[in-house]
């Protein structure tokens, strides 16, 4: 039957005809005989407005777009589940924090912030990390980022921040980047941004994959237990895959080679059954700690170092299913920070309180009405009963006569009518009875006034390689700023964070004189202890699992070696792509043609975590003059990647200008055991010594 539909799994409202009958119909269900030719008066005559089939098709097409998100427009959503490993009844009464072994369904959307929906994935930007937990007690949304602090302390500044970061209103560019005057003007006039600036100028903003980054709830929340007692909490996501980022030069090239690099990576790994996982960690603390801590726990520009309050792991998020329909799920998902369940509560963080208004409000605009909770991806997976009614696109409508309370239906003689739902003080949401007192003021608390100490702590906690990347990033970004006074003002801030960093940037910008320090509300605390947890390289996985090896093969390459490399990569939990001069493949030493996944022109080495070159001497001579082949090797070298090569490939290494500079990041390949050794080296992910040589 053409009008019988099934709802596809995963909550999509995508509808497919059942059985053999795949007759196309109109949206009204009427079978269509021809949807490729508009009804006309005669074969070459004018089109008739009468054609209801054509009009319906065009009408629907005209209305396909909804407004993109004002921030976080480019995102990628994935289904999964959360499993609690350790119950925490002492902290929270929420079921999700008390029932171990239950798989709570989730939907997670990763995103960039500034770029529009079509912007490239490797923009230097914060990544959104938002998870909707469909708990048995209602939806809980943890709408976080991959950075634990934020640019501003008060939500009222958010429109200014976003206007300054997005394309300038007159010219409509630059897209998806902060390397321009307006952004640096705003942040250099907002000292509270300096800690966040350190994070965004680090490699955290150019992650190798969504799979290899941390997530943070950012704000301090509350947990409430069955006795109504409150503890403060900060939420952390720790990737089991380890942390990893790319280099800036690599990011720039990835954006050209594959603007969908991150979403493709996520799709491919889930499609291949390699499900990424994150542990959920909590930092729990009480009022006494909040009192004694140097910074205000309500200030979202501050962290609580893990070394100070340890992150306790309580459960695991597994992402295990791609969406059926990108629009229905990833686009229509509506996260709201106000979506919490009993046992979790807000703190007075002024950024969080402001967000609670913004997220609900924005969904009205984006999804067109108040009934967006009826859209399958947003609908809770537990009973929903209330007296809210009507509005655009109402899908789940109550039956019966009663739509108000209090009511007396269901009581007395012959009253069959269902009286409808009632509030339940024992199971229902109750707020923490925090004492509130004070005069109404527009005032930034003195306790929010230290803008540099944690910025310094972050910088000091990085390895020298990471510090160099930060200096380079600041120099690059500020070199795109046209106004000299803005450049200087920023260097004036950097001097409050770290004089050496300020010097590097001033030198990189060619400033003749060192600018004065910017006046500070508080002096920097110079000696906060380093926090190793803040460095990516100190938390690398030392494993090649989940990474990708690109093997560049050409005529005469050793077939057995290629097989050994494939096997070694598989054993290491990595994936392989065969790259060749032709996408049809190359004839190897065994006389057989090996198929290629990619043609060299479309597969620069920036798409891989490590590369191997397996070809005969003639091919190596030939491709030593070929620009894509030269770039393949040269970029792998410049980006500190491990390079496996056969002796016969040396002419290509020479052509790429690296033959004289071969270091321990090069591994000669000959047989199966050399392939295994090579993959073992790749576990270090990058041969950073090569960067050190550059620095010396
Ligand atoms: Fe958001 N933010 N935000 N934000 N945010 C939105 O909501 C907002 C902030 C974050 O994948 C919008 O549905 C204000 C911090 C993520 O759909 C909007 C403030 C953090 C996502 C909004 C902030 C975030 C958003 C735009 C200052 C990290 C994408 C579309 C107080 C903890 C969610 C939408 C998704 C999206 C407002 C600051 C994370 C306009 C007013 C801090 C991950 O409501």
Automatic annotation (TrEMBL):
The keyword Heme applies. Coiled coil: none annotated. This is Catalase. It comes from Aurantiacibacter arachoides. One of its GO terms (cellular component) is cytosol. PROSITE patterns: CATALASE_1, CATALASE_2, CATALASE_3. InterPro entries: Catalase, Catalase_AS, Catalase_clade2, Catalase_clade2_helical, Catalase_core, Catalase_haem_BS, Catalase_immune_responsive, Catalase_large_C. One of its GO terms (biological process) is response to oxidative stress. Decomposes hydrogen peroxide into water and oxygen; serves to protect cells from the toxic effects of hydrogen peroxide. Belongs to the catalase family. HPII subfamily. Its cofactor is heme.
């Amino acid at each position: 039957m053409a009008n019988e539909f099934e709802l596809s799994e995963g909550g999509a409202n995508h509808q497919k005809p059942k059985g053999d009958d795949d007759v196309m119909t109109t949206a009204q269900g009427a079978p269509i005989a021809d949807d490729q030719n508009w009804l006309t008066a005669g074969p070459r005559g004018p089109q008739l407005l009468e054609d209801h089939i054509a009009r319906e098709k065009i009408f629907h097409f005209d209305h396909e777009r909804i407004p993109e998100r004002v921030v976080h427009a480019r995102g990628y959503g994935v289904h999964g589940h959360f499993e609690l490993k350790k119950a925490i009844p002492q902290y929270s009464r929420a079921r999700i924090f008390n029932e171990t072994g239950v798989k709570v369904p989730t939907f997670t959307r990763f995103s960039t912030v500034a770029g529009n929906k079509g912007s490239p994935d490797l923009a230097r930007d914060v990544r959104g990390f938002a998870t909707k937990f469909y708990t048995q007690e209602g939806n809980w949304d943890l709408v976080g980022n991959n950075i634990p602090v934020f640019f501003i302390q008060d939500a009222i500044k958010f429109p200014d921040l976003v206007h300054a970061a997005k394309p300038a209103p007159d010219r409509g560019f630059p897209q998806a980047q902060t390397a321009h005057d307006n952004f640096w003007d705003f942040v250099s006039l907002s000292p509270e941004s300096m800690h966040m600036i350190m994070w965004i100028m680090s490699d955290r903003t150019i992650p190798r994959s969504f799979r290899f980054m941390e997530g943070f709830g950012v704000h301090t929340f509350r947990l409430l237990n069955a006795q109504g007692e409150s503890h403060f909490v900060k939420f952390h996501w720790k990737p089991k895959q380890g942390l990893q980022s790319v280099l800036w030069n690599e990011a720039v090239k990835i954006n050209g080679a594959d603007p969908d690099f991150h979403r493709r990576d996520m799709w491919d790994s889930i499609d291949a059954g390699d499900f990424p996982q994150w542990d959920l960690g909590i930092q729990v603390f009480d009022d006494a700690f909040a009192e004694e801590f140097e910074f205000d726990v309500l200030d979202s520009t501050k962290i609580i170092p893990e070394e100070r309050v340890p992150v306790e792991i309580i459960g695991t998020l597994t992402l295990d299913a791609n969406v059926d329909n990108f629009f229905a799920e990833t686009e229509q998902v509506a996260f709201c920070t106000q979506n919490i369940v009993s046992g979790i509560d807000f703190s007075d963080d002024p950024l969080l309180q402001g967000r609670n208004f913004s997220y609900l409000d924005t969904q009205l605009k984006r999804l067109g009405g108040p009934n967006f909770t009826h859209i399958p991806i947003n609908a809770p997976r537990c009973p929903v009963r209330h007296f809210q009614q009507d509005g655009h696109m109402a899908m789940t409508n109550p039956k019966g006569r009663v739509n108000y309370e209090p009511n007396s239906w269901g009581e007395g003689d012959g009253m069959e009518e269902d009286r409808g739902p009632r509030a339940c003080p024992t199971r229902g949401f109750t707020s923490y009875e925090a004492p509130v007192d004070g005069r109404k003021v527009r005032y930034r608390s003195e306790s929010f006034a230290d803008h540099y100490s944690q910025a310094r702590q972050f910088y000091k906690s990085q390895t020298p390689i990471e510090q160099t990347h930060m200096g380079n990033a600041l120099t690059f970004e500020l070199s795109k700023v046209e106004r000299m006074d803005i450049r200087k003002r920023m260097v004036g801030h950097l001097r409050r964070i770290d004089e050496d960093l300020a010097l590097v940037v001033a030198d990189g910008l060619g400033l003749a004189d060192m600018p004065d320090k910017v006046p500070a509300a508080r002096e920097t605390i110079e000696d906060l202890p380093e926090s190793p947890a803040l460095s990516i390289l100190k938390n690398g996985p030392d494993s090649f699992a989940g990474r990708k090896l690109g093997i560049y093969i050409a005529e005469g390459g050793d077939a057995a070696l290629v097989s050994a490399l494939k096997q070694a990569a598989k054993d290491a939990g990595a994936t392989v792509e065969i790259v060749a001069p032709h996408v049809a493949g190359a004839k190897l030493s065994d006389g057989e043609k090996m198929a290629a996944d990619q043609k060299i022109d479309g597969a620069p080495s920036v798409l891989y975590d490590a590369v191997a070159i397996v070809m005969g001497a003639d091919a190596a001579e030939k491709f030593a003059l070929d620009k894509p082949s030269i770039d393949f090797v040269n970029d792998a070298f410049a980006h500190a990647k491990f390079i496996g090569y056969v002796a016969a490939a040396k002419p290509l290494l020479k052509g790429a200008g690296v033959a004289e500079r071969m270091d321990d990041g090069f591994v000669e390949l000959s047989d199966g055991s050399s392939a295994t050794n090579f993959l073992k080296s790749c576990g270090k992910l990058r041969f950073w010594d090569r960067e050190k040589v550059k620095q010396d």
